[in-house]
Task: structure prediction
Amino acid sequence: MQSRIIFLLTFLLSVTSVRAQIVNQQVNFDYYLDATNNDFKNHFSGGYGLSQIQTNGITGGCLTVPDSISWGNDNAIYCTRFKPLAGDTLVAAVGFKYDSALVHPGSYQRALSVWLKPQADFNHYVIASVSGDKKIELLTYSWSNNPYPLLALHSNHWYHYVLTVIFINSLQVKIKAEVFDLGMNGSATPSLVNSSSGTVNDEVLAMDTSIQVSISAATYGGTTYLDDFSFYGRKGFSDCIDIATGISKSPTSEVPLIYPVPAKDEIHINRDNLQGEDIHATLFSVAGIIVSDIYLTGTQNSIDVHRLPPGSYYLRCISAQRTYSYPVVIVK
Result:
């Protein structure tokens, strides 16, 4: 009897731990050993026409994109899934390089799309796109943001597309898309181009425990390269591959952990697995104004945000080896 009680307590503690796991995962597409062992192959499945190269990215490698895609069928599916609880804020983001000369207006190809698909019913999706005519498209099971806001995109600039999903309760879900201009080399001060948001009632999406994240892009929509994918929120199922061992593992250790999600008084930065790197962290407002600028020391670091207005911000952490970019939501 006592052994049963111990087992039950251990099981409950392990379940609680899993349910509480918030992660911040980033894939910079800089690791490339060969055509079958690289960041894209190790962290994504599908994505027909997408392939990783070792140059042309923001910090190194990136993904090339096909001319056109079969929308919703050619997605690159990330190896970790969201497992949200009521009150959670989840973020999926990716960078893209734009070239208006590539756009084929009659093809209806999107420059970029980020998909969220619940396991219970994939029809209760969230699709966040940059359309071929340079607009933010948000499509869900029961709502779209039509008329779609325009985006003033410049050729040969890098942009960061940020999809934020707030699970208000077991029914209501708030969806927000933001596009930031990162300049021609991807390292300029982030500048908000435009954003769009809405709140929907969708119990299937709000209550699902395995929400799949995927991305797609096409040159006929205006995208030349993809880079810097990030996954930020409560982690569900994962089949990510550890590039060092080949063992199925989350890539969480590759980046600093930023929490809580969303932030209220402080943003905590844990760099336990990056002790050998000197990291400079800068927090920007959506207007591109620097609101905090620190050098990370030790394992645990914090940024005081309690005086900042609620809303979206952008945290960039730069080391000699790489650049980490995180959308941050502050609430009151």
